[in-house]
């Protein structure tokens, strides 16, 4: 470790891969330049002003020929690091001020025995800037452990040893989305044609690309292949069941959607997303009592447990959404006081929610007294 001001403080190398990121790169680097001790940027073939922008922040800019392999590019960026730990970001990521402070504090407190640090990745924010969809990623790793990236698309960093969780988070802001670009889909299909044997993880992420591009039959085929390997990460299996249920509903197959939601419970305790989907299906069938059962179960699930597991987390399903739907259910049964009670509970989670405001006006028109 490097000694600064009499204390032991870790040093951090930033490792990035970029291509044509002139719109986002400065925003990212502005958010991290005062936290890290070294910035390494590997450019995979930019034709815009990305490299000129990068040079405003670092002289450690390297070229790497793009070979349709994200892991290879990531490993190249890691190979340039010289500090105690390596932090990786994408150009459309930022550290918000509070997270910069958390990471600076972590630099002072992190023990040399730690091999990797996981942080939340917030990929969707609401209008108030609160995260609504997050999951954990191993974000900061000890350089001397020589951890490597794997996977030509949707690559992952394989870590082991002493892994700790940090309150610091990385936030994804506007950037290219998988649904608007067919780059990853083309890489997968090129690999398929070449005879590449897909790992379970490859099967899952190829199915995701097909889903994002509305190739629903193909997505269903590969989600099923993924699940049938019985070797996938439980969170990916749960998500695959959710995507299969969504496809079934798009194709008008409600019972099949129900079956996939229930299948998700075989991988772990029920998740609120799947409970709410079941509630929605039964409500659409006017089976209100069944809908109430599933929505009420969603309100009782422990969001902190899901966070600790590092699961994909859509906070709406653990907050206002099931209560708004219970409001609809009880209103349909003409149990107006219970309906208003759940709208009030939804309001406690999100006072500015448009559904909550609409319901407030509706209940005002009914002149309801407060429930006891």
TrEMBL record:
Among InterPro entries, the record links this protein to: Glyco_trans_2-like (IPR001173), Nucleotide-diphossugar_trans (IPR029044), TPR-like_helical_dom_sf (IPR011990), TPR_rpt (IPR019734)
Taxonomically, the superkingdom here is Bacteria
Q: What EC number is given for this enzyme?
A: 2.4.-.-
The protein's matches in Pfam families, at most eight in alphabetical order, are given as: Glycos_transf_2, TPR_8
Keyword set, alphabetical order: Glycosyltransferase, Transferase
Query: Glycosyltransferase 2-like domain location, by residue?
Result: 13-132
Query: What are the GO MF terms of this UniProt record?
Result: glycosyltransferase activity
| The protein's name | Glycosyltransferase
Origin species, per record, is Sporolactobacillus shoreicorticis
């Amino acid at each position: 470790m490097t000694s600064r001001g009499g204390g032991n403080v870790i040093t951090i190398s930033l490792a990035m891969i970029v291509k044509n990121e002139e719109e986002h790169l400065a925003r990212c680097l502005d958010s991290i330049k005062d936290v890290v001790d070294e910035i390494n940027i590997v450019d995979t073939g930019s034709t815009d002003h990305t490299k000129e922008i990068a040079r405003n922040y670092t002289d450690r800019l390297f070229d790497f020929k793009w070979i349709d392999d994200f892991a290879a590019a990531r490993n190249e960026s890691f190979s340039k690091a010289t500090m105690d730990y390596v932090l990786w970001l994408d150009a459309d990521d930022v550290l918000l001020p509070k997270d910069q402070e958390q990471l600076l504090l972590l630099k002072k407190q992190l023990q040399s025995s730690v091999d990797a640090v996981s942080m939340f990745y917030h990929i969707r924010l609401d209008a108030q800037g609160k995260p609504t969809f997050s999951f954990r990623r191993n974000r900061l790793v000890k350089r001397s452990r020589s951890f490597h990236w794997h996977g030509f698309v949707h690559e992952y960093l394989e870590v082991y040893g002493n892994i700790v969780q940090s309150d610091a988070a990385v936030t994804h802001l506007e950037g290219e989305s998988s649904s608007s670009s067919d780059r990853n889909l083309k890489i997968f299909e090129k690999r398929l044609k070449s005879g590449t044997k897909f790992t379970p993880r490859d099967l899952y992420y190829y199915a995701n690309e097909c889903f994002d591009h509305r190739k629903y039959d193909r997505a269903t085929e590969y989600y099923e292949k993924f699940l049938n390997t019985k070797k996938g990460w439980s969170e990916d299996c749960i998500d695959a069941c959710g995507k299969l249920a969504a496809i079934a509903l798009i194709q008008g197959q409600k019972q099949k959607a129900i079956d996939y939601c229930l299948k998700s419970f075989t991988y772990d305790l029920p998740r609120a997303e799947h409970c709410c989907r079941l509630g929605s299906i039964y409500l659409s069938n006017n089976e209100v009592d069944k809908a109430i059962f599933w929505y009420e179960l969603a309100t009782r699930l422990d969001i902190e447990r899901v966070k600790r597991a590092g699961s994909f987390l859509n906070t709406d399903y653990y907050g206002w959404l099931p209560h708004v739907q219970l409001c609809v259910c009880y209103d349909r049964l003409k149990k107006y006081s219970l309906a208003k009670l759940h709208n009030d509970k939804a309001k406690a989670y999100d006072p500015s929610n448009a559904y909550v405001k609409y319901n407030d006006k509706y209940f005002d028109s009914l002149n309801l007294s407060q429930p006891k």
